[in-house]
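Trying the structure run again after the queue cleared.
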Amino acid sequence: MNKLLIGLGAVIAVVVIIASSSLFIVEQTQQAIVLFFGKPQETIREPGLYVKVPFAEEVVYYEKRVLDLDPPKERMILADQKRLDVDSYARYRITDPLLFYQTTRRVSEVSGKLTPIINSSLRRVLGNETLLDILSGKRATIMVDIQKAVNDAVKRFGMEIVEVRVRRADYPDETRSNIENRMKSEREREAKEFRARGFEMAEGIRADAGKQKIVILAEANKKAETMRGEGDSEAIQIYADAFNQDAEFFSFYRSMQAYRKSIGSEDTTLVISPNSDFFKYFGDITGKQLAK
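Done. C-alpha cells:
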C-alpha cells in the first residue's frame, strides 16, 4: 500500500512538472516568441494560456508597452556653425518580436543600437537648421523630421519610434564661457560709451552754465553799475542842491563827518598843524581861521 502511494505521488509529481513546463501565460501587456532549441517557432501577440513542448521549447517575452530610451548628450554643429550639446530622449515599442529577437535579442541591447541612429538623425537634420529655427515655431516640424528619419532606420530591428524629443540644447562649456566673456566685454564697452557720453554732456552743461553765469553776472554788474551811477548822480545832485541852499552849513556838516571818521577812534594820531583849515570849526563855529 505504501509503495502504491509512493508511486502514485511520484506520478503526480512528474505530471505537475511536465504540466508546469508545458503551460505558459502571456500577459495582456506582453508578446512572446516560442523557441525550439533556440530556433524561433511561433510568435504570440494575444494574451492567454498556451502550451509548449516541455524542456524542448522556451518562451521569450517582450513588452507591448511603450519603452523609454535616454541617449547620452551629443554635440551637434548647426547650419549657422553654432555648436550645441543636445540632450535628447526617445520612446519606442517593439512591433515585430521575431525580427527584434533576430536582430537585437534583449531590450538591454536597444540603447547600443538606437543611440547611434538617433544621434545620426539628429546630426543630419539639425545640421540643416539654424539656432533660430530650433528656438522658433519650426521646432515641432524639426522633431517630426527627426522621428521620421529614425523610424526609417529602426524598422529593420522590429521597432517603431513613437516620439523623439530634444530635452535640452545648450552651448558647450567653452563656448558658453566665450559668449559670457564677449557679453561682458560688450556691456563694458557700452558702459564706457555711456560714461563718455555722460561726461561729454556734463561738460557741455557745465560750459553752458558757466557761460550763462558770466552773462548773468555781466548783466547784473552792468545793472548794478548803472544803478550805482544813477544813485551817485542823485546823491551828487542832492548834495549840490543842499550846498546851494546853505553852503556854510554843508561845509560844517562835511567837516563833522570828517572829524568822526578821522578822530573817532581812541588810538588815532594826527600829525597836522592846529591852524590848518581842517580844524577851522574847532575854534569858531563860523569856521573863521584860528588866530596865529
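Helices lie at 2-22, 97-103, 110-126, 131-135, 139-154, 173-245, 247-263, 280-283. Worth checking whether this holds up in the mutant runs.
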